[in-house]
Design goal:
25 helices, single chain, five-stranded parallel sheet, alpha/beta, 24 strands, six-stranded parallel sheet
């Protein structure tokens, strides 16, 4: 049977085009695996595709025989390939060869759009930098931030303060850092500086998922770094998914917002940028006016997007020495922040050198340093440090590694779900549910999401906590798997099934908008004490199960799905096979860093060390082209 990649390559079946077929097949396959292009220098020796059909030419593709030199030679010969493969100056052909990278033209154009738009934002920001520098020097809010900074001698340089200044001065800024390093707090500081300059500032908050966008708004609204005079403005900001920000067209790959009709904003802040694929980011940045500040937040070490590209990582990798600044901006930074220990990088002139700040101190892991140690060791493949965690006597520690997949370990964790079931108040029950989660690498099998959810259900049913006689049983926890903008529900939102006062089953969700309003009112009035029953009821909203068909049980979820979430306790279940391409250090790092207090990992030493060796390898030209 032909697969999708065969069908794509078979489109070029004319005699004079047949020599392009292996390249077309290979680039289609790489695109499906997350790469933007086919790097002809990195075709692994012996990587072949065996075919079962009767056509001789499809019996085997020797991908290791493909090369840019061979392709260039064929193009020079003027045969049929020359009509199919173009260059960066000839993008009207179906394929592009740029250096040693072979692209489907559409994806080469996405990269080009991203690079050109970044250059445009940077150029416009440079024209305004001196005026902004003058305003920043005279800013009372900057002085307050400097005086009230939370860092100490032990912490070192206040990277949050530095990132705030960089984002103020530039039109394009990337703020990257691990969990708990204060990316949202940094944004709060930036906004306080910008609102001081312009009280009518138009700010748009966006993220790949509605849940992540709402979480960013909530963090900003409750952030202590936001001065009281700006808190109301920030609390009233509306969070968007990127698709909604760009105003998607129904059943169309295009958006209403584009280079001809950009998003109306002075500042656009995009969180969880590691989850954005290259196609969506190209459309996003095309819709950002050069006069607008664009700030990207994310952890470059997290898993890349589900779709093609590893955009945030590619952009961050263009800067060899992060937090070293060029001579173009270094004197200015020292002038406004003389107390910071800044480093210059005069010899290198990288495009993003002065537009990228890496937050390096995690406040989350101060009380739980083991979690920080393991996450750092995993992302750097520090085997000696990782091996220290394979200690059987860690019951009182933040991390337990269970190599034997003990039933008792899993059951003790599952017991924690009884707390939300026993809780009568719906809002509190949802909050208790969200304190713990089982994370899996795969979807099927005993160590997959399906098997783990069934295991939890069986345990709770045996204990009499749930009744599995119907699909939407009482206390079933569910996760929304598709955006429902008309209902203000988004992919990733978690709720529980319970009866309403009339005895009808409903799916209940936290009303985060209401919660934010209540928090803002409390801040403004200084109200405290017990809340009325009416106020508590208004913090949740419910829907008929028939209205929400796109939901799944969520005692367990994939690590991919957990991105952007945090839980007090996490049970991370590894598959028992070492041969999965999914097993990478980025995946383990993402799973580990979802835990705030306690982490249990079920997986053998061989599996975990194998995963720490693996990397997410996605071919892209962005780093080299920038």
């Amino acid at each position: 049977m032909f697969n999708t990649h065969h069908h794509f390559a078979n489109f070029f079946k004319k005699k004079e085009e047949k020599s392009i077929q292996p390249y077309a097949y290979a680039v289609s396959k790489k695109l499906a695996q997350g790469s933007i292009c086919l790097d002809l220098n990195e075709i692994r020796e012996g990587e072949t595709e065996q075919q079962e059909d009767s056509l001789e030419e499809w019996r085997e593709f020797h991908l290791s025989d493909l090369s840019s030199e061979d392709l260039k030679s064929q193009i020079a010969d003027g045969n049929g390939i020359s009509d199919l493969v173009g260059s960066e100056n000839d993008v009207k052909k179906p394929f592009i060869l740029h250096g040693d990278n072979f692209y489907i033209t559409r994806y080469f154009n996405y990269e080009t759009q991203i690079i050109e738009s970044i250059n445009s934002l940077i150029s416009k920001g440079k024209l305004d930098r001196q005026e902004r520098l003058k305003d920043l020097k005279a800013s009372p809010q900057l002085a307050r931030l400097v005086e009230g900074k939370e860092t100490s001698v032990e912490v070192g340089t206040d990277w949050q303060l530095l990132a705030s200044a960089i984002a103020y001065l530039n039109n394009f800024t990337i703020i990257t850092g691990g969990p708990g390093t204060g990316k949202t707090t940094t944004v709060a500081k930036v906004l306080s500086l910008l609102y001081e300059e312009n009280p009518k500032l138009i700010v748009k908050l966006a993220a790949p998922t509605g849940k992540a966008a709402m979480r960013m708004k909530e963090s900003l609204a409750n952030n202590a770094m936001v001065p009281s005079e700006f808190r109301k403005d920030i609390s009233e900001l509306k969070p968007y998914t990127i698709h909604r920000l760009l105003e998607y067209k129904h059943q169309s790959p295009y958006f209403k917002r584009n280079s001809e009709n950009p998003v109306e904003a002075d500042v656009i802040i995009v969180d969880e940028a590691s989850m954005i694929d290259v196609a969506l980011f190209a459309k996003l940045i095309a819709a950002v006016s050069p006069e607008t500040r664009l700030i990207l937040l994310g952890d470059q070490n997290q898993l890349a997007s589900v779709e093609a590209g590893s955009l945030l990582g590619d952009l961050c990798n263009t800067v060899k020495n992060k937090n070293h600044f060029s001579e173009n901006i270094f004197p200015d930074l020292k002038g406004i922040l003389p107390q910071l220990d800044l480093k210059s990088n005069p010899k290198e002139d990288e495009l993003l050198q002065d537009h990228l700040v890496e937050l390096q101190h995690s406040y989350r892991f101060v009380k739980k340093p083991e979690l920080g140690d393991l996450s750092k060791a995993m992302i750097s493949n520090d085997i000696p440090t990782i091996e220290k965690f394979f200690d059987g006597n860690r019951d009182e520690k933040a991390i337990i590694v269970d190599q034997e997949y003990k039933e008792s370990i899993c059951e003790n964790f599952i017991k924690g779900f009884e707390a939300y079931i026993s809780e009568k108040d719906v809002a509190t029950a949802i909050e208790k549910l969200n304190e713990l989660r089982i994370l899996a690498v795969i979807r099927e099998g005993n160590q997959g999401v399906a098997g783990l959810n069934a295991r939890v259900e069986k345990y709770l049913a045996k204990k009499g906590k749930i009744n599995l006689s119907q699909v939407f049983y009482e206390n079933r926890p569910v996760i929304v798997t598709r955006n429902h903008s008309d209902l203000n529900l988004f992919n990733g939102d978690v709720g529980i099934v319970r009866k309403d006062k009339d005895g009808k089953m409903r799916i209940w969700f936290l009303d985060e908008e209401k919660q934010l309003d209540d928090e803002r009112k409390k801040t403004e009035t200084g109200a405290d004490g017990a809340e009325s029953k009416e106020a508590v009821d208004k913090k949740v909203r419910s829907f008929s199960p028939g209205l929400l068909t796109d939901v799944e049980t969520v005692f367990a979820m994939t690590v991919h799905k957990s991105q952007g979430s945090e839980f007090e306790k996490v049970l991370l279940v590894m598959p028992k096979s070492e041969e999965l391409p999914l097993l990478t250090r980025e995946l383990l790092y993402t799973g580990i860093t979802r835990a705030k207090e306690k982490l249990k990992i079920q997986g053998t030493k061989e599996i975990i060390l194998k995963a720490s060796e693996g990397r997410v390898m996605r071919a892209s030209g962005i780093t080299n082209r920038i």
